[in-house]
Automatic annotation (TrEMBL), chain A:
Its main location: membrane. This is Cobalt/nickel transport protein. The keyword Phosphoprotein does not apply. It holds the Pfam family PDGLE.
From TrEMBL, chain B:
The keyword Zinc does not apply. Keywords: Cell membrane, Membrane, Transmembrane, Transmembrane helix, Transport. The chain crosses the membrane at residues 21-40, 52-70, 77-107, 119-136, 148-169, 189-212. GO terms for cellular component: plasma membrane. InterPro entries: CbiM/NikMN (IPR002751). It is found in: Cell membrane. This is Cobalt/nickel transport system permease protein. It comes from Actinomycetospora succinea. GO terms for biological process: transition metal ion transport. It is a multi-pass membrane protein.
Length: 118, 234
């Protein structure tokens, strides 16, 4: 088996952490394309939430996990915690996705002998 | 209980399409993901499995970075073409799905009942359409790094626009509130612009990976994606 490109992996992770942890503060807070469509025709209340009018977002329900400690990419709803929530999200994604893919992977040829154990 | 005033929701919420439509696309998503899990194994080994986990984490990070496209309207990466080019379409669709699942469960972004529609649009349609475009342009992609970067841009743009058509289809089946033609026009118009951002991000990312570790770019590493896998170098 060839050596794993550990340095590359580490660099890739650092980039992702910086994007989620730091650059995320510069992200636009305008609704995205989909949200802009579902809000078209809505009357918005003073906090910018749909409150009447004829629009798609009128049918949207409150989110089932709106009370999650990480809801809306914050930690406990506290302001300025987007970066922390982002870092948690990156690490959680890495662990879940990486773990799943590691379990699914083909074992390298050496231990490919069909041993029943494991 | 007070719903946040932040506009951070990025994906379809619960109730945007009716319950039967949510169920239909929930089934579509489950079936599609089952195929992906079965086929992903072939593309995962000791080197590519960690890479795929990192690609998923990267997509999560970049999806947080909404960029402005018009006054009052933003866009963000969907990630299908990006994942497909780097780790293959089956693993790639799983990467995007895991991101969507975590966003819905932990970050209250994208409704739980809308997971089927969101996964269908962004993880299945976006990834496989993006991959199809990339494969069609593969001759260009293997010629040079510039060719690969151009391929990544085009695949990502198409992935974004076609994924938005997935929403239009779901809305046509089970949505209400706006005329279908209006929804079609706004969705494709906005996503033609968002696709430019998606294309730039995808091109930069794929270009950077190809510069450092070309062996970790699925599209150009694998033999022509046909039936030639048998008997390939082992």
């Amino acid at each position: 088996m060839k050596k794993l490109p550990i340095a590359f992996y580490a660099g890739f992770l650092v980039v992702a952490l910086l994007l989620a942890g730091v650059v995320s503060y510069a992200a636009s807070s305008s609704p995205d394309g989909l949200d802009a469509v579902t809000r078209t025709g809505c009357q918005l209340d003073e906090s910018g939430e749909p409150a009447g009018g004829e629009c798609i977002a009128q049918n949207a329900g409150e989110h089932a996990t709106a009370n999650s400690p990480l809801a809306d990419y914050t930690v406990g709803g506290s302001e300025g915690s987007t970066g922390v929530a982002g870092v948690i999200g990156v690490l959680a994604t890495l662990v879940i996705a990486g773990g799943l893919f590691w379990l699914l992977r083909r074992r390298s040829s050496r231990d490919e002998t069909p041993s029943r154990v494991e | 209980m007070d719903p946040s005033t932040d506009l951070v929701a990025m994906h379809m919420s619960d109730g945007i399409v009716n319950a039967p439509t949510s169920v239909i696309f929930g089934v579509v998503a489950v079936l599609g993901l089952a195929v992906c899990v079965a086929k992903a194994r072939r593309d995962l080994d000791d080197r590519t499995a960690p890479m795929a986990g990192l690609v998923a984490a990267f997509v999560f990070a970049v999806q947080m970075l909404n960029f402005p496209i018009l006054p009052g309207v933003s866009g963000h990466l969907l990630g299908g073409a990006l994942c497909a080019i780097l780790v293959g379409p089956y693993v790639g669709a799983l990467c995007v799905s895991i991101v969507l699942l975590l966003q819905a469960l932990l970050f209250a972004d994208g409704g739980l009942s809308a997971l089927g529609t969101n996964i269908t649009n962004m993880a299945l349609i976006g990834t496989f359409v993006g991959y199809g475009v990339a494969v069609a342009m593969r001759k260009l992609a293997v010629r040079s790094r510039g060719g690969l970067i151009a391929t990544a841009f085009v695949a990502a743009w198409v992935n974004t626009v076609v994924a938005s058509l997935g929403f239009v289809l779901e809305y046509a089946i089970g949505g209400q509130g706006l005329a279908l033609g209006t929804v079609f026009g706004l969705m494709t118009g906005f996503h033609a612009l968002i696709g430019i951002g998606e294309g730039i991000i995808t091109a930069l990312t794929v270009g950077a990976v190809a510069a450092v570790r070309p062996d970790l770019v699925y599209l150009t590493r694998t033999a022509a994606p046909s039936l030639e896998i048998k008997g390939a170098r082992a």
